[in-house]
Specification:
Blueprint lengths: L2 E5 L3 H13 L3 E5 L2 H10 L4 E4 L9
Parallel strand pairs: 1-2, 1-3
């Protein structure tokens, strides 16, 4: 199973992507900002990272 990291500061977008991707049988982790996304990325192996370009603490 492929593992995907979704980084977005908008909760609705994160949750929608998670629902759609999990329905398609992907394993999904979520982060609400750049720093927490980098932390997850450094601790795990992901096949794909989906990242918002404009965020508060750190842009994608």
């Amino acid at each position: 199973m492929s593992k995907i990291l979704v980084i977005d500061d908008e909760r609705a977008i994160r949750n929608t992507l998670k629902d759609v991707l999990e329905y398609e049988k992907y394993e999904v982790d979520l982060a609400e900002d750049g720093p927490s996304g980098l932390e997850l990325f450094s601790e795990n192996k992901y096949d794909i990272v989906l990242c918002d370009i404009k965020m508060q603490k750190m842009d994608g």
